[in-house]
Write a structure and sequence with these properties.
The structure is a single chain. The chain is built from 9 helices and 12 strands. By secondary structure, it is an alpha/beta fold. The strands form 3 sheets. Strands 1-2-3-4-5-6 form a 6-stranded parallel sheet. It has a 3-stranded antiparallel sheet with strand order 7-8-9, with no helix packed on it. Strands 10-11-12 form a 3-stranded antiparallel sheet, with no helix packed on it.
Length: 273
């Protein structure tokens, strides 16, 4: 967070905001997060979130069952954007949390309680609650493409975001990388530990869009908006971020008809292609 704030103070507009994925998460859904770092919603971490939100758009992913309603209300009222993730929350717990200010689910289906016949869980709540948003990783490893289709059909336009969860494997030919002391192996585009636990992805956003179009059947324009305009609007990014129009930042990519990147512009300058 402090590095992000420093860059923002120095005028680096590439830093749009910050996302805290934890540390208030359920240990049973930790994934590759270090369980030694998991903590409750104490005053120190709440103040860190609030300070961040006072400086830049701030999204916090937390487990609603690990936080009381008053803490969620306080964070939401302070401008912190709140998603559920790494959670075992029940449908009822999700209902209470959204009533207090929770707005959606991070990387839907992954590391969160899924629906069964008698317990809809966090996934079920995200799909039936019209007000809720979700982000999703469309790489073919984290979520079956048919499950992406189900989720997409359940939500109104503007409520679904694409995220990559990309790790150092993206753009690298190295077969391994490390998260602290944990070694992660990259095999055919899949990032996993020796035990087979997914550890982020090697997904880029253009491929996520391409998968939405070619594998799921989502309209190309809608898939592009899921990666650009919708998350920018949700985060309340100012200055036309997420759009190509007069007065908006001239940072964009040029793609061919198959959504392969041909060139990249940053602040109006060609930097690749």
């Amino acid at each position: 967070m402090y590095s992000a704030m420093k860059l923002r103070r120095e005028g680096d507009t590439r830093v749009a905001g910050v996302h805290f994925e934890g540390p208030i998460i359920n240990p049973s859904k930790a994934g590759v997060h270090n369980k030694d770092n998991i903590r409750g919603a104490d005053e120190e971490i709440i103040e860190i979130y609030i300070e961040s939100a006072s400086k830049m758009p701030t999204l916090v992913t937390l487990a609603p069952e690990m936080v009381d309603r008053k803490a969620i209300e306080r964070l939401a009222q302070s401008g912190v954007l709140l998603f559920a993730g790494h959670t075992q929350a029940t449908f009822e717990q999700m209902t209470v949390a959204t009533g207090a200010g929770l707005q959606g689910v991070t990387h839907l289906y992954n590391a969160c309680s899924g629906p069964s016949s008698r317990e809809p869980g966090a996934v079920g709540h995200a799909l039936v609650d019209d007000a809720s948003y979700f982000s999703i990783i469309v790489d073919g490893f984290h979520v079956h493409f048919a499950s992406v289709d189900v989720a997409f059909r359940c939500k109104a336009s503007g409520k679904a975001f694409l995220v990559t969860d990309a790790m150092p494997a993206l753009g690298s030919d190295e077969p391994t990388f490390s998260i602290d002391d944990l070694e992660v192996f990259v095999r055919d585009g899949r990032c996993q530990t020796a035990e087979g636990v997914l550890a982020g992805s090697a997904l880029d956003m253009a491929t996520a869009i391409r998968n939405c179009v070619q594998k799921v059947g989502i309209n190309r324009a809608e898939a592009i908006r899921m990666a650009t305009m919708y998350p920018a609007d949700f985060a309340r990014l100012e200055g036309g971020v997420g759009r190509i129009r007069a007065g908006a930042p001239a940072s964009f990519v040029v793609c061919d008809n198959e959504m392969h990147i041909a060139s990249v512009y940053v602040a109006g300058e060609l930097v690749a292609g």
